[in-house]
Design brief:
DUF4126, about 190 residues, globular, transmembrane helix, membrane, mainly alpha, DUF4126 domain-containing protein, single chain, about 0% strand, 7 helices
């Protein structure tokens, strides 16, 4: 059961990284510092004040950047590989497996894959917003992404099974939207 909950936690945090790269890492840091989650031994750095200061600074800069026209689209380009890395790190930090290959493999597939899929979906949403509103609607999209990242991270930390269900629905919805969009272009 503990393994299942750790997978749910990792999946929820990694999906949150698809909305914002650093906010879920900051919330995981706060949760680890308060003993609400326990990262693996290799990720003891996640419980330090240095990590808190660095992640807080990165979070504030990232969130601020998404409210600046043009910078928001540039950040989406950079955020895709960064989200995959962050999702992999967060998932790997909370799943305890003895085999390093399996440990990092699951982290990359579950965490990185989920973060990447959500980030691609949010990038397409921002692109659509930029195209249809000339960028005026992007702050609304940014605010929704901030709320989604914060909320999903909190759910993952405190109610990981519910976070898993929401992530599954989110991924299914993204696939449905991408398939319907592809069919409408054909």
């Amino acid at each position: 059961m503990e393994f299942f909950l750790s997978v749910c936690l990792g999946l929820g945090l990694s999906a949150s990284c698809g909305f914002r790269v650093f906010l879920p890492m900051l919330l995981a840091n706060v949760a680890a510092m308060n003993g609400w989650i326990t990262p693996g031994e290799q990720f003891a750095w996640l419980t330090t004040w240095t990590a808190f200061a660095a992640l807080l600074t990165a979070t504030v800069l990232e969130i601020s950047g998404y409210y600046i026209p043009f910078i928001d689209n540039l950040l989406d380009t950079i955020a895709t590989p960064a989200a995959v890395i962050a999702g992999t790190l967060l998932t790997t930090s909370v799943i305890e497996i003895d085999s390093p290959i399996l440990h990092w493999g699951l982290g990359l597939i579950i965490g990185g894959g989920t973060a990447g899929m959500v980030q691609i979906g949010t990038g397409l949403l921002r692109l659509l917003s930029s195209k249809t509103t000339g960028g005026i609607g992007n702050p609304v999209v940014s605010t929704a992404e901030n709320v989604a990242s914060f909320s999903l991270s909190g759910l993952a930390i405190f109610l990981p099974v519910i976070a898993l269900v929401l992530v599954v629905f989110l991924i299914l919805w993204l696939f449905k939207r991408l398939v319907s969009r592809k069919k409408s272009k054909s």
